[in-house]
Design brief:
Layout lengths: L10 H22 L10 H11 L1 H15 L4 H21 L11 H10 L1 H8 L4 H18 L9 H5 L4 H11 L4 H16 L12 H24 L4 E2 L6 E2 L5 H20 L6 H5 L1 H7 L1 H6 L3 H4 L4 H22 L7 H8 L3
Parallel strand pairs: 1-2
Helix pairs in contact: 1-2, 1-3, 1-14, 1-17, 3-5, 3-10, 4-5, 6-10, 7-10, 11-12
Length: 347
């Protein structure tokens, strides 16, 4: 039996979801209060970028796990998808320093994944689901590397600006910040894990296959980091990474981020870490609402000429505040976006 709380929620999944949203809060704060003007190759910069870069992959993978477990009807799924599209619009207008009004983002990605849920479920629930899973993942990764040049420019402004319908559709599917391709690969991984039967009530199997994948991923990251250091290149960066690049997501990023997802998953599951559980219960609320104070304070770094240390402290305080806030807000479940979605999508 999977370890659940009294109301039937999976503790490990809520904890992972909470960790993901707090990492997203951190990376958004770091991007807003950034004294640097250029690419940084320091170990501290890699640490922040690495943790922040795992936020979205973890979020999408956990979302895929939830898709396979959800029993919602087609009508309810369409309602949820519509609400997510509206929330994406709200996020955009509440954070104009980051996004254009009609920029597709991670919430619009979730909406598409909900709509194509039958396809994802079918791929992850076949009798030969392990074989299908590997074939799908290899195919997605292979196509991704071959089509990398078609996935938009390494420029944030071009990936968030949406001048017309065709650009909007392109960003939604291929060239945006979180396009369906290749981000669907994380959802497929999550759905496969959700459909798998594991011993001892584990949400992620603790077996040789999982450990082998982690070892291969870690070795790849270490090897590419060493090569990058020798060549004097930028190892990882949101838009200028020679080995791990986020926008667009290259093969190195997909391998590294999936490895990080598995490591986080195993650590939280095996050590029963519940620190982030409260945040996971209201992760969507935190994600949408945190942009408001962040936008209001977006010019603080420039106005006060913050140093790197001051900016780092501000990021740490801002992120920790949402962790504490989650414990309080969970007592007000009626005042959450999650509760609103539940009420609107009831058959």
């Amino acid at each position: 039996m999977i370890d659940m709380t009294n109301n039937g929620r999976v503790v490990a999944i809520d904890s992972l979801r909470g960790l993901a949203v707090l990492l997203m809060v951190m990376v958004h704060a770091a991007a807003t209060w950034n004294p640097y003007q250029g690419v940084q190759s320091t170990w501290f910069a890699y640490l922040i970028a690495g943790l922040g870069g795992l936020a979205a992959p973890l979020f999408v993978t956990i979302f895929g796990w939830g898709l396979i477990k959800s029993q919602s009807s087609t009508k309810n799924n369409l309602i949820k998808a519509s609400i997510l599209i509206i929330l994406q619009f709200i996020v955009n207008i509440s954070s104009p320093h980051l996004y254009a009004t009609f920029t597709p983002g991670i919430l619009s990605l979730f909406a598409i994944l909900i709509v194509i849920k039958p396809l994802i479920v079918k791929l992850s629930s076949t009798k030969q689901n392990l074989t299908v899973f590997w074939l799908c993942l290899i195919l997605l990764y292979g196509i991704n590397e071959a089509m990398l040049n078609f996935q938009g420019a390494n420029d944030w402004d071009k990936r968030v600006n949406t001048d017309n319908i065709s650009t909007f559709v392109s960003h939604l599917i291929l060239t945006g910040t979180y396009p369906l391709f290749p981000w669907i690969s994380f959802a497929v991984v999550g759905a496969f894990l959700g459909s798998s039967i594991t011993e001892g009530g584990k949400t992620l199997p603790r077996n040789n296959t999982t450990l082998l994948l982690i070892i291969i991923g870690v070795c790849y990251c270490l090897f590419s980091l060493i090569i990058s250091s020798i060549d004097g290149n930028t190892w990882a960066h949101p838009t200028k990474g020679d080995h791990l690049n986020f926008f667009p997501a290259n093969l190195g990023f997909l391998i590294g981020s999936l490895t990080g997802v598995f490591i986080f998953w195993l650590v939280i599951q095996e050590f029963n870490l519940t620190l982030f559980e409260a945040s996971g219960r209201i992760s969507l609320t935190i994600y949408v609402v945190h942009f408001i104070p962040l936008t209001i304070m977006s010019n603080y770094e420039n106005e006060n000429n913050w140093t790197v240390m001051e900016a780092s402290q501000a990021v740490a305080v801002f992120t920790t505040t949402w962790l504490i806030f989650a414990f309080v807000w969970n007592r007000l479940q009626w005042l959450t976006i999650e509760n609103l979605i539940r009420k609107l999508s009831i058959s």
